[in-house]
Specification:
The protein is mostly beta strands and 168 residues long. The protein has helices at 68-71, 95-98; strands at 11-15, 18-19, 28-38, 49-64, 78-81, 84-87, 100-108, 111-112, 119-132, 142-150, 162-164.
Length: 168
């Protein structure tokens, strides 16, 4: 059986049903199981066992050429009005409250694939922005958004973090 997402290629990124547009530098999905190593004084630093303590998953999305209204929800403290975007300091923001579904769909040429198995779904994705806007004649302005997966708490996927395959 082949891997449903394929081996190479860009993807469409949708957050809360909205296409986030162009990316530059590749979208990267990461998943890591965190473990505690068990050692004994009598055996030194030799690992005798491991205990799973959790999992963390995230998607790095380097957005480029974005309209301010499109990235407003992805930048903490951002507000867009008729005069542009203003960003205020934030603290104590509950990530779960604003977390929404993130869907990556492998591109089939210039369009997203219509094959439901060409998707990766993060059920609850909490965005964190890292802006790197260079003002020069050789680079592109990139708004890197890292979407951290949180366990779902509201849909039919309670406790689940992500899936590959049909988002339904």
């Amino acid at each position: 059986m082949s891997f449903p997402l394929g081996e190479t290629g860009p993807c469409q990124v949708k957050y809360d049903g909205v296409d986030l547009g162009y990316t530059k530098g590749g979208v990267k999905f990461k998943d890591e199981v965190m473990k505690t190593e068990i050692t004994y004084d009598q055996t030194g630093e030799t690992v005798q066992n491991t205990v799973t303590k959790g999992r963390k998953a995230s998607v790095d999305v380097p957005l480029t050429n974005q309209a301010l209204a499109l990235i407003e929800d992805l930048i903490a403290g951002a507000t867009v009005d008729a005069d542009g975007m203003i960003v205020a300091t934030t603290t104590g923001k509950d990530g779960r409250t604003g977390a929404k579904e993130l869907i990556l769909t492998i591109m089939d040429g210039a369009s997203p694939s219509t094959d439901a198995d060409k998707t990766l779904v993060i059920f609850k994705a909490d965005p964190t922005s890292k802006i790197d806007w260079g003002f020069d004649n050789a680079g592109q302005r990139i708004t890197l958004v890292t979407f951290n997966a949180l366990p779902d708490d509201a849909s039919g996927n309670i406790g689940n973090m992500w899936r590959v395959g049909n988002p339904a």
